[in-house]
Amino acid sequence: MRICVIGCGDHANRFVYPSLSALSGVRLAAVCALEAAQAESCRLAHGAGKAYTDYRRMIEEEKPAAVIIIGPPRLHYEAGLFCIEKKLPFYCEKPLGENAAQARELAEKAKAAGVFGQVGFMMRHSAVMREAARLKSGDFEYGVVKYYTSGPYRSDEIYGLPGLDDASFLKRYLLVQAVHPVNLAASFLDEIVEVGQTVQFSEENILVEIKLRDCRGKRCSALLHTFVAPGYGNLKFETELFYADRSMILTDQFHALDYYPPEPSANANVRHWQFAPFGANNVKMGYQSELEYFMTCVREGKQPPRLTTLEDGYQTMSILEKIKL
Known about the structure:
Elements: E1 2-6, H1 10-21, E2 27-32, H2 36-46, E3 50-52, H3 55-62, E4 66-69, H4 73-85, E5 90-92, H5 100-113, E6 117-119, H6 122-125, H7 127-135, E7 140-149, H8 166-187, E8 192-202, E9 205-214, E10 219-225, E11 234-243, E12 248-252, E13 256-260, E14 271-274, H9 281-285, H10 287-300, H11 310-321
Helix pairs in contact: 1-10, 4-5, 5-11, 8-11
């Protein structure tokens, strides 16, 4: 399949292009960046056929099977609309747009046009979460997702979202960081009917707790903060998942989990799973797996519901817009 990619920045070069190169049956037809030199450098580095500075022209001329979009929220929205107009399936990084209204427009227009899209919520495709989904034995009851990071701080301007005031800082943090763990927390639930919140500022740091309840009364929370000093990076990603049959799954970062079955066995009370230390990092973190899933959908011409769809991306942004000062 011939694929075109819009975006040649740091994230694309670190995760997306290496993941694409590991997939069989996929050919990188062309890449696009605003600056010609950056686009050409990316083309050479990843073996693309051509380099462009206008994604519309690239899509018109290359006629790819699908498009991948990696950039600021406005680009995801505008390029997504163009793909829908051209009846092309597309994958875009999170968030879907600058706000929930743009995300809703993309989801609704794609559905009306019979075009599917996928959002880059890599946590859902990570090896540890796929193993957790395989192991679960009962109905989900409640859980918590913990995500502690060094930044983005108040002084940052990320994804074209400027502003040092509390409201701008909160919006940027929600769209850039909280969107991943909140999407993961919501994935364990049915229709969300209640969104609770705690927001606390401490100079350049922020703490956010988002509590979700679904139509069945099941609950899941996302606890996030930036009280991690620069240099530590993303210090913690953990989930604690509890099921109605009294089984438990506790995950540790992207590499390990402990499964507690409903009844302890005679030999061991816990089953431990760990990602192979020599395994591909992009598979472990979900970048390669989500692109492989997208390519499978493109080949088959259909996309199963719920798993990181445009509708799923819209639901996540709707939750985030309910979080206020």
